[in-house]
Structures are given as structure tokens and as C-alpha cells.
Amino acid sequence: MKVLALSGGVGGAKLALGLARVLPVDALTVVANTADDFEHLGFYIAPDLDTVMYTLAGINDSERGWGLAGESWQCLDALDRLGGERWFQLGDRDLATHILRSSLLREGLSLTEVTARLCDALQVAVTLLPMSDDPVRTLVDCEDGELPFQHYFVREQCRPAVRGFRFEGQQLARPQAQFMELLADPELGLVVICPSNPFVSVDPILGLPAVRDALASCAAPVYAVSPIVGDRALKGPAAKMMAELGLPVSAASVAAHYRGLVDTFVMDDSDATLAGTIDEPGMQVMTAPTVMKSLEDREQLARVLLSHAEDAKP
Ligand code: FO1
């Protein structure tokens, strides 16, 4: 069956890799958030696309979560000596991606075309698409005012309390064409919203014009995997954001966030007692081992989702 995965960075990339390893190569399309993209030192940086691409290519740094394994930082050190900014760490080898992507974009290629070229070169066989070729930028409304996403996330280390989010350009951006074609494809068998941050990784994708309607009318069931287990986020600031937005920190809040959109909500086995308390209209709840530490964990979660969707077919 054809499968579509919607992903942010680290958590989403793990499940995308699991799906890629258990599905035939031409079955999986991964759409990545691009609202955390930004211009830095003259380069176009697309962190979530990078993280997913490096993970699918098997060359990511799994400890750090972002960037390349075996990275060196000589350019960053030299930059620092010259008085340049080093808060956003660009490794020597990672820089090659940003140099080439930026130069191809300047030549007039779309982000979709550039991503396909980079994926080809890195022998990533599954289709990886940006959510849009048009610019969308996440702005974080926090106690210090509005901050561009990477300034909030990396420079300020997510310290300021958040009050909300704004996705500049979202309503003018066209969702990536193949993404929308796949949502209209009768052979689409499963949509998975990966365990990514619902506020800053998934909402930028869902809020693109026509995406919610296309998800509601697509042939496939929509599954969402909770990035919150117990009262903690698997990775990143999702739990902190939830608390600051006045929401209870639990998978139940993620389920409520996806109300009206998701057919099956997947939460961790350890949250089984909470599962029975979730009562969202039209939403089934299932539990599964969602904490993906090893490669086997990623494949196992992918298999559980695929077989559940297969069994649930009318
Ligand atoms: N995350 C950090 O926490 N610190 C960094 O210095 C950093 C650099 C970086 C460079 C390239 C890239 O593709 C990603 C990078 N990230 C870094 C990750 C990224 O900012 C976040 O993980 C995502 O934006 C959140 O999904």
C-alpha cells in the first residue's frame, strides 16, 4: 500500500526510517515541515528536511539528533575566531549540504527539486518532499516577544515561555504538488502523523491551504503517534510548550489537538490507563511501543501501524 508520513525533525525521522525499512521503496512518501527553515550566514537551512534526509540515508548523528555522524567543526571554529556567529552549529560536512542547496535554489531550482537531487546523491530511495516550495516561517510568541523559530529553539534553547505560534506565509503557500496528488490517490493506504511536535512541526503542514480538507477526504485512514509519553516529550520542547499553553501535559492533549482529523491515535503502551479516558469524536485509540531507541524499535512500530491499518480495512 502507498503510505504518507508527515514529519518534523528527530522523532518523525525515526518513524520515517522504520517505515522506509519495512515498506517497498516506492511505497513511502515523507513530507517534512519546512516552517523551521531559515537563512543563516547567507545559506538556506532546512533543518527538518536535513534531519529526515540524513536519517533515511543512515548518516545522521543519532546522539545529537541533528546533523551528520562523525562531524568536525573547523569552519565553525574559524568563523568564531573571525567574530562570526556560532550559536547555530554548522558542521564541516553538513555545510556541503547548505552550500549546494543554497546555490541550486539561487539557480532557480525549487526546494522539491533540490531535495530530490540531494536524496539521489545520498541514495535515499524513498520520496522525501518539503511540505511546500513556498516560504512559511514559524514565529514563536513568547514572553520576550515574537522570536523566529531557530532563535527560540537553538539560540535561546527554548527557555522563554511560549504563548502561541504564528506561521508567516502559511496561507499564501501552496502545499507541495505531489503531496496533494498523493492525498487524492485512491491507492493511498495510510497516512501517519509521526511523533513530532504538534505545535511547531505538524501544525505548519496541517494548516497549509486545503491540507486539512484533503486529509479528511482522502482514501486512507489517518494515524497520529503521540510524541508525549507519560508527562514527557520523547524529544524537544513539546511538553514544556504544552504546560506553558495551559494544557495538561499528556498524550490526551495531543489527541485533543488532532480532534476531527485523526482516525486512530497511537499512544505508548505505558499510557494504557490513559487510553480508556480519551473520548474524541471519530477517533479510535490504540497503544503500541512508541519509544524508539533502537532500529528494531523503529521497524517494530512501523510494522504495528501497517498491520493495524491493514486489519482495519473495510
Ligand atoms: N539544533 C540545535 O539544537 N543546535 C544547533 O546548533 C543546530 C544546528 C543545526 C544545523 C543544521 C541542521 O539541519 C539542524 C540543526 N539543528 C540544531 C537542529 C534544528 O535546529 C532543530 O532540531 C529543528 O529545527 C527542530 O525540529
At CATH level 2, the architecture of the domain at 2-38 and 132-142 and 167-311 is 3-Layer(aba) Sandwich
Bound molecules: ligand FO1
> What is the typical, i.e. mean, pLDDT?
96
Helical residues, percent: 25-40%
Number of helices: 13
Biggest sheet: strands side by side, in what order? 5-2-1-9-10-13-14
CATH class of the domain at 2-38 and 132-142 and 167-311: Alpha Beta
Topology:
Layout: E1 2-7, H1 10-22, E2 28-32, E3 38-40, E4 43-45, H2 47-57, H3 74-81, H4 92-107, H5 111-121, E5 127-130, E6 137-142, E7 145-148, H6 149-155, E8 162-168, H7 177-183, E9 188-193, H8 198-206, H9 211-217, E10 222-225, E11 228-229, E12 232-233, H10 238-244, H11 251-257, E13 264-268, H12 272-275, E14 284-288, H13 295-311
Parallel strand pairs: 1-2, 1-9, 2-5, 9-10, 10-13, 13-14
Antiparallel strand pairs: 3-4, 6-7, 6-8, 11-12
The chain binds ligand FO1.
Ligand FO1 binds near residues 66 and 89.
Describe the protein:
This protein has 13 helices and 14 strands. It has 314 residues and is of the alpha/beta class. The protein has a domain at 2-38 and 132-142 and 167-311: Rossmann fold, CATH 3.40.50.10680. The strands form four sheets. The chain has a seven-stranded parallel sheet, with helices on both faces. Strands 7-6-8 form a three-stranded antiparallel sheet. Strands 3-4 form a two-stranded antiparallel sheet. Helix 1 (10-22) runs parallel beside helix 2 and helix 1 (10-22) packs across helix 13 (295-311). The longest helix is centred in the last third of the chain and has 17 residues, at 295-311. It is globular and about 60 Å long. The model has no long low-confidence stretch (mean pLDDT 96). Residues 8-9, 36, 45, 47-48, 50, 66-67, 88-90, 94, 150, 153-154, 201 line the site of ligand FO1.
